Amino acid sequence: MVEYGVAKFVLPGQGESGDHHLVCCNRNGILVAAIDGIGHGEAAAKAARAAAALLRSSADEPIISLVERCHEELRATRGVVLSLACIDPEHGMMTWLGIGNVQGVLMRADARNGNAQESLLLRAGVVGSQLPALQATVLPIVRGDTLFFATDGVRSDFSVSLSARENPQRAAHRILEHYGSGNDDALVLVARLTGISP
Questions:
Q1: What fold, for 2-193?
Q2: CA 190 to centroid of chain Cα atoms
Q3: Does 99 or 90 have the greater pLDDT score?
Q4: Strand partners, 187
Q5: Is the predicted pLDDT of residue 52 greater than 80, yes or no?
Q6: What is the distance between the alpha carbons of residues 21 and 10, in angstroms, rounded to a whole number?
Q7: CB count, 10 Å around CB of 66?
Q8: Domain residue limits, the chain
Q9: With bands split at pLDDT 50, 70 and 90, how would you rate the model's confidence at 113?
Q10: Could you read off the pLDDT of 16-45 as tens digits, one per residue?
């Protein structure tokens, strides 16, 4: 239902990245998430891994419940910022939500009917520490639309270079190579929707 690619950069001197991703099927479709543990190194990675595990195990829950559950479970950690999307291919809908600074962009395969690019509205906060009022956005989607998530190790102007037609793995590597800041962990997740009902 999705074809996706991921590119990661680990801050030199750190054993592992504090940025993680998740792409998993659930009862209603697919859950896609990019997670950035606060700070970097082992403590950040531990928080991001905990969030990813919880999202995977509870993937059937509504998106706001998922984030609230993550918030409760991560209180003993540094916390994370994250953006996630629930894709419902049967009904051609995507629900997405972002807490913190993990950027999200949806590139339309066919822009004749409106905006070629939709940007995720991010709310300030930290999951596990300070959770803002949660409000998810629902968008119609069609086959070929492509979702991009990038953590804060990637410069925000990456969005000017996007195409819904580029191979997802190539796009992830290209964005990281050209827009990675080099002074923080970085992750780019690109998911093209292939299984939407016509």
A1: Phosphatase 2c; domain 1 (3.60.40)
A2: 9
A3: 99
A4: 8
A5: yes
A6: 14
A7: 23
A8: 2-193
A9: low
A10: 899 999 999 888 899 999 999 998 888 999
CB crowding 135-147: b at 16 or more within 10 Å, else e: ebeeeebebebbb
Tokens in use for 14? Answer: 């750190």
Give the containing element (helix H, strand E) for 37. strand 29-37
User: pLDDT-based confidence at 195, cuts 50/70/90?
Assistant: confident
For residue 162, the 8-state DSSP code is -
Residues 71-78: contacts with CB under 8 Å, at least 24 apart: 71/127, 71/128, 71/131, 73/128, 74/47, 74/50, 74/127, 74/128, 75/128, 75/129, 77/37, 77/43, 77/46, 77/47, 77/50, 77/128, 78/37, 78/38, 78/39, 78/43, 78/44, 78/46, 78/47, 78/128
Please give the single-letter amino acid code of residue 171. Answer: A
Tokens at 167, concatenated: 């191979």
Say how far apart CA 174 and CA 143 lie, in whole Å: 23
d(CA 127, CA 141): 27
User: Would you call 55 helix, strand, or coil by DSSP?
Assistant: helix
What's the CA gap between 48 and 53, in Å, rounded?
9
Once rounded to an integer, what is the mean pLDDT over residues 47-56? 96
DSSP state of 171: H
Query: What pTM was estimated for this model as a whole?
Result: 0.94
